[in-house]
Design brief:
This protein is an alpha+beta fold. It has a single domain, classed as tt1808, chain A (Alpha-Beta Complex). Strands 3-6-7-8-9-10 form a six-stranded mixed beta sheet, with helices on both faces. Strands 2-1-5-4 form a four-stranded antiparallel beta sheet, with helices on one face. The protein is globular, with a radius of gyration of 17 Å. Pfam families: Uma2. It comes from Bryocella elongata.
Amino acid sequence: MATTPVLITVQEYLRTVYRPDRDYVDGEVLERNMGEIPHARLQTFFIRFFAQFETEYSGEALPEQRLQINSSRFRIPDVMLRRLNPDEPLIVQTAPLLCVEILSSEDRWRKVEERILDYASVGVRTSWVIDPWRRLAYIAGGTGELREERTTLMVPDTRIAIAVDEVFAELDRLEALTPKPSLD
């Protein structure tokens, strides 16, 4: 039997500290799947990768930062790349250049698509979805429609680009450094 979700106000959501932080969609607080090492490694990789462009684009890469979609909806991309805006001290309210979602083993595609459509609805022109389990990458333009990308992930109207193979080669490199448990 399905349970009825407990709805809360936007004000209650904004004043509550969640660990980890959670999305807020039309009164419902939604948990996010995370906490797995491949997810964390890719999140760190993208933050470091985007750092080289911060000065050029007067921007910053932020992990797990709240993005206001509308008055009753807040999403938390795994990584966002945004232009600096002193008028947004706590919550991002203008469209970032890019939102990146890194799949966890329990993520469901329909939920990921909903997130990407939310990003597109506020003017995010590009979103990337990275699947570390199947070594696949997807890109969505301003319509939010996802398509598999096999060569290069790019941010339009910038020099920001990275080969899909490079993303997964770094993940492979990090995994190779991890000691394997002994079977003794």
